[in-house]
Amino acid sequence: MTAGRCTYDSPVTQLESPADVSESSAKGRIAALLGHSAVRFLAAGVTSTAVDMGLLFVLHGVLKLPLAPSTLVAVLAGFTTNFLLNRIWAFESSSPVGKQTARYMVMAGGNWLGTVLLVGGFVKLGLFYLLARAIALVILSVVNYFGYKYWVFRDK
User: By residue range, what is the domain housing residue 83?
Assistant: First the structure.
């Protein structure tokens, strides 16, 4: 007893405060959310877009290199970043990389074709082209997630 208070600190009887419980359960929810492949897929997409656009800015905007080769290098860097992050982190795949690369390229071609067709179709329906592109992006992101998860990066 210290000044009228009990200072007994047995690990058996010591309870977490409501704030500690709330904090630990919030951390658990965040960890579970970040552990989900869909969240990691989206983070990989944001990261690869940042690599693409950041490198384009450096190559063309800062170094004043020609736009076409700067764009090509930036797109390839973003494309590679996206493949690696999805393979290693988002879907944690250990299957042979060659087959996955081929499947990824098929998905990329389908994605390009789907983008062109969806944006063109939505514009013909009267949508503003940037809104059409945003809607196509959402639709194809869902398609890509499931395509990557169950086909490209699926482990046998």
Answer: 24-92
